[in-house]
Amino acid sequence: MDTNSELLTYIHVNSEMGKNMLNQLIGITKDNDFKSLLQSQYNEYNMINSISEQKLSSRNKEAMNVNPFDKLAVYISINLNTLANAKPSHISEILIKGSTTGIIDITKKINDYTSTADPEVLDLANRLLSFEQSNIEECKKYL
Known about the structure:
This is DUF2383 domain-containing protein. This protein is an all-alpha fold. The chain has a single domain, classed as Ferritin (Up-down Bundle). It contains 5 helices and no strands. It has helices spanning 3-28, 32-58, 68-83, 88-113, 119-140. Helix 1 (3-28) packs antiparallel against helix 2 (32-58) and helix 1 runs parallel beside helix 5 (119-140).
């Protein structure tokens, strides 16, 4: 697989996982303001996901979905982590930890592919990075 497709696949799977997680959390939270924040974040993940899928398709590559076992593990983890405490402060903490991991991972990918990936693909990777950074700032308000 070429470097552009590798990076786009990573972005696609990452944003798909974000969408799945947020969709689940939107159903759990009762706080309407917080739910609006989660919906906004879901929408951006969805946009990044769609763009990555389009870019893969234009390269005649099929977008990979999240591994079903990883998807199940995240689903169970969210249910267990919110069973006793589904307050926005606790959910924000979960999201901040996830976004921090996301920042580390996408930064490594950007560094690995800076000299080989097309600028438009790197722009999408940087959009994901900026989005993860802003997610942390937005979630801090609910801690």
